[in-house]
Design goal:
Number of helices: 17
Low-confidence stretches: none
Radius of gyration: 23 Å
CATH class of the largest domain: Alpha Beta
Largest sheet: 11 strands, antiparallel
Strand content: 15-25%
Number of strands: 21
Mean pLDDT: 93
């Protein structure tokens, strides 16, 4: 039951010294709250989930159905399995009842009525491209309703997709701490900041240049990389704040001259030869965006076999930095840089190597005061019988590997062993999964959430709590309009998890043509 909202008074100006002071005071609550909940999972708490993708609007527009990505954190509803935890989930638009019911029925051992009584869903009723957090701040009455849904602010916190000044302001207005990074650290999650931090941590990275500001800088960097590496075939060009690979491009050196003619050749050929990952991107627009946010140019790593694993880490409010998972990313796009999904765990041949690199990065981030989840992406190249790894990016936020792993944890209540890279259930059964954010087909357009549930039930596409295997869907709201949804397919081996995924695709393709 939501009580009568209490009007906000004495609201500090965003970014003011008073707001910063209040935010710092709120953040001091996180450590004792974390200790309390860790020691007693039955302790009362409220988790306010604000799944705002507070990112560059133009870059976000490259992702089809981007506003439905607010649904990826619906995995946080699984916290309702803790009997005295209340979840407040705020979205831009209302989430269909069928989708909410789908998640609540996944809760192990919790009566539906009990879970519903501890869940508050609120919406801005706003489908615009404005970040969700800004929409909330623009609606003082909605802020009051969120505050009213928090039984005890001393036992509450806010969790978000990524932390910016907007999230800080909202935390202050709600009077609860933010489980996320201080926005002053955000530059460490840019492509340039990542390269700086990799050097500080002693983690290998591709040769290249960061903090480039315009198209002239890009051309000079492309020339210099070729001069230093005459055999280099391609260079990667990346916007500092691009994400999911959509802000990346490739420049091929095929036919490049040597000596003094190289610089003129690159200047002439760059606008014509550059190949973008994002569909419909142009050199003019890309160059303008580069001038706004900066970026990097680095060597394109090649070899007999190339993969892109990632390691997911967490720094908790107690100041403990841990590796929580490793993945092999599933990539697509014109040159294989767009994130489509992941397999868990990463290949045993190198999972330990990237875990150790993640620990080095985590140590530096902890010293800088980072908080929450982050992931490090690598390019791994096989050289004979060995693998060489180069770190290419830090995602200093929740990302594409966050929600699949959280679903696995919430559904199976198992543990991850960072030493051998395996995740096992309480009965010591290993778990694997194949996850995708981009199961997409024009055939799927027009299928509603209710249709998907019917198809899943009729064809046995569901997670079985007894065997602790099966399929879980997400991004369900994007299905009807965009023909797109996500899956987490959990099995007892990589092969079994992949088969669950392939069977899911086959069923959806067949049913969509009826």
């Amino acid at each position: 039951m939501i009580s009568t909202p209490t009007p906000l008074v004495d609201v500090p100006e965003p970014g003011s010294a008073e707001e910063l002071r209040r935010f710092a005071a709120l953040q001091e609550r996180l450590e004792p709250l974390a200790r309390k909940v860790l020691s007693n999972p039955r302790a009362p708490q409220t988790v306010v989930v604000v799944p705002s993708l507070t990112l560059d609007v133009e870059e976000l527009a490259k992702v089809s159905g981007a506003h439905h990505y607010e649904e990826r954190l619906l995995c946080m509803l699984m916290l309702l399995r803790l009997p005295r935890t209340h979840v407040v989930y705020v979205t831009s638009q209302q989430i269909p009842t069928a989708i909410v019911d789908y998640y609540l029925h996944l809760l192990p051992g919790v009566p539906l009525r009990h879970a519903r009584s501890r869940m508050t869903l609120l919406s801005c009723h706003d489908a615009s491209d404005v970040p969700l957090t800004q929409k909330i701040l623009d609606r003082p009455r909605l802020v009051e309703r969120i505050r009213a849904a928090i039984a005890d602010p001393e036992a509450a916190h806010m969790t978000v997709f990524n932390s910016t000044a907007l999230e800080r302001t909202l935390a202050v207005r709600l009077g609860i701490p933010l489980y996320g990074n201080d926005l002053q650290l955000n530059y460490l999650g840019t492509k340039s900041g990542s390269r700086e931090l990799f050097r500080e941590a002693g983690v290998p990275l591709p040769e290249g240049f960061e903090h480039l500001r315009d198209r002239g800088d890009v051309a000079e960097a492309v020339v210099e990389l070729k001069r230093r590496n005459p055999g280099l075939r391609r260079a990667a060009i990346k916007l500092d704040e691009g994400f999911s690979g959509e802000g990346n491009a490739v420049f091929p050196y095929e036919g490049a001259p040597e000596g003094k003619d190289l610089a003129r050749w690159v200047k002439d050929e760059l606008p014509k030869r550059i190949k973008f990952e994002a569909e419909g991107e142009t050199w003019e627009r890309f160059g303008r965006k580069f001038e706004e946010m900066g970026g990097i140019v680095e060597c394109w790593l090649e070899g007999e076999e190339v993969r892109s694993p990632s390691v997911q880490c967490r720094i908790n409010p107690l100041g403990e930095a841990t590796v929580v998972s490793t993945h092999d990313q599933v990539l697509g796009g014109p040159s294989g840089q767009i994130f489509l999904g992941s397999t868990f765990p990463a290949d045993a041949d190198y999972s330990r190597d990237i875990k150790e690199a993640g620990q080095k990065v985590g140590k530096v981030l902890k010293e800088r005061g980072a908080l929450g989840r982050f992931a490090i992406d690598f390019i791994s190249v096989r050289r004979g019988r060995e693998w060489e790894h180069a770190a290419i990016e830090i995602n200093l936020r929740k990302g594409g590997t966050t929600h699949p792993y959280l679903m696995l944890r919430f559904l199976t209540d198992g543990t991850y062993d960072p030493d051998d890279g395996l995740y096992c259930t309480p009965t010591a059964k290993p778990c694997y999964y194949y996850a995708s954010d981009n199961l997409k087909s024009p055939l799927y357009k027009g299928l509603t959430p209710d249709d998907l549930v019917d198809i899943a039930v009729d064809n046995g596409l569901h997670f079985d709590g007894a065997s602790q295997q099966g399929v879980v869907f997400h991004l369900i709201g994007a299905l009807s309009q965009y023909g797109k949804l996500g899956t987490v397919c959990i099995g007892n081996s990589h092969e079994n998890a992949l088969k669950f995924y392939q069977d899911t695709v086959a069923v959806l393709d067949r049913e969509a043509q009826r």
